[in-house]
Amino acid sequence: MHHHGGAGGGDGLPATVLTVLVLFAAAGLYLLAAGRARRRNPALGWSAWRSASFLAGLALLGVALLPPLAPAAHSDFRDHMAQHMLIGMYAPPALVLAAPVTLLLRVLPARRARRLTALLHSRAARVAAHPVMALALSVGTLAVLYFTPLYNTVMAHPAGHWPLHAHFLASGFLFAYVIAGPDPAPARPGVRARLVCLGVAIAVHALIAQAMYGGFFVDIHAPVAQVRQGAEIMYYGGDIAELLLAGALVATWRPERRGKVHGWAPASMREGKSSSSVRKSVAGSV
To answer: Which of 123, 201, 204, 208 is at 20 to 30 A from 144, Cα to Cα?
Structure first.
């Protein structure tokens, strides 16, 4: 292993300003939608805990993507791993527990809500949201990143950092959504199957971290001490994140209701009922 000499200076002030603007915009849009949901149905309202969870997820992303951590992550493998944990394993469950899909379905007009439902029922969405696919995208790609020259290539080209961050966030969000999301989802398997997938994720994370610590198979241009400490962050930080996700699975689990397909299927959407009935049906599933 050799010292990594990539773009240690980060992406500069423009990227920092853009990141702040995007995070604030996401927070504003969510809070506006939550307020609209409360106004449309005061009796049902919208949980303040869900709003707080979304804001917490954005705050974790801010810590990961803004100084001082973001610039340091470009040159220090330990900081890179801390950033990876925040973006891919800690922020996604917080965002998922905010139930953004349900919020969208409550505030969208009935016609657009039906389109969103049809999209989530599509074959492509079912394949992407299958636990095995989510597991492969969130955990399987780590071996590709750290056991091939990909990590060194990304670190040597600042433009590659953002696609990597996007992958961490998207794959982490998808995995958390499949395992413990309160949002309704098509063809979501039972609790036992999801726990098995979570157990596999824990085992694979541990194996990759141990191989990294021992210097087996890894292709990371960084000092040995940094790689080992990064492996420890991945090992212990990953365990904590996945245990929290298991807790979220238990907290959000509900027995399957009669008249629904895998906990999703508000029939009123398929039958084209009114916007208010659509929202009530969706709300009842969360």
So the answer is: 123
What is the C-alpha separation between 254 and 286, in angstroms, rounded?
9
Residue owning tokens 């995208």: 137
36/26 Cα distance (integer angstroms): 15
Judged against a pLDDT cut of 50, whether residue 266 lies above it is answered with no
Q: Tokens for 6?
A: 């990539």
Match 């922020």 to its residue by tokens.
Answer: 91
Q: Which amino acid is located at 202 in the chain?
A: I
The predicted structure's pLDDT at residue 256: 54
What predicted TM-score, i.e. pTM, was given to this entire model?
0.84
| 174 vs 9, more confident | 174
Find tokens 């200076």 and name the residue.
9
Q: Which amino acid is at 261?
A: V
148 token code pair: 């091939």
- DSSP annotation of 6: S
Q: How many residues does this entry show for the chain?
A: 286
Q: Are 14 and 26 in contact (CB under 8 A)?
A: no
How far apart, in whole angstroms, are the C-alpha atoms of residue 100 and residue 33?
Answer: 9
* Average pLDDT of the residues in 157-180: 91
Alpha helices in 181-285 (DSSP H): 191-214, 224-252, 267-271, 275-284
Distance in angstroms (rounded) separating the CA atoms of residues 93 and 242: 10
Helix (H, G, I), strand (E, B) or coil at 75: coil
**Which of 213, 210, 208, 203 is CA-nearest to residue 239?**
203
